[in-house]
Amino acid sequence: MLANKNLIEFVCVTHVEPRAAGPKITLVEGAWAFCSGHGEREHEWMRIEPTRLEHVGDPRRIQRLKAS
């Protein structure tokens, strides 16, 4: 089951340099994840507040999800 349908809930903090191939959007733990460097493996995912795709590239709009 996909949570928050079209919202990004993880960002990769390993592959941060954009590449010509563009970003990679994939599923992580049933939620959408964004890797700006289009890395194929060895991601380190950071859970964020669910964020619209067009806002993922703006660090001011991304908030790390606080542990409950």
Structure description:
This protein has 68 residues and is mainly β. It has one domain (7-61). Helix content is 0%, strand content 35%. The protein contains no helices and four strands. The protein has a four-stranded mixed beta sheet, with no helix packed on it. The relative contact order is 0.30. The model has no long low-confidence stretch (mean pLDDT 80).
Fold blueprint:
Elements: E1 7-12, E2 24-28, E3 31-35, E4 45-52
Parallel strand pairs: 1-3
Antiparallel strand pairs: 1-4, 2-3
Name the features:
35% strand, 4-stranded mixed sheet, globular, single chain, 68 residues, mainly beta
Span of the ends, CA to CA: 22 Å
* Rg, Å, rounded: 11 Å
SSE series: EEEE
The share of residues in extended strands comes to: 35-45%
Q: Determine the fraction of residues in helical runs and give it as a percent range.
A: under 10%
Q: What kind of sheet is the major sheet?
A: 4 strands, mixed
Task: Please identify the oligomeric state.
Answer: single chain
Structural class: mainly beta
* Order of strands, widest sheet: 2-3-1-4
> What's the count of strands?
4
Gross morphology: globular
Number of helices: 0
What number is the mean pLDDT?
80
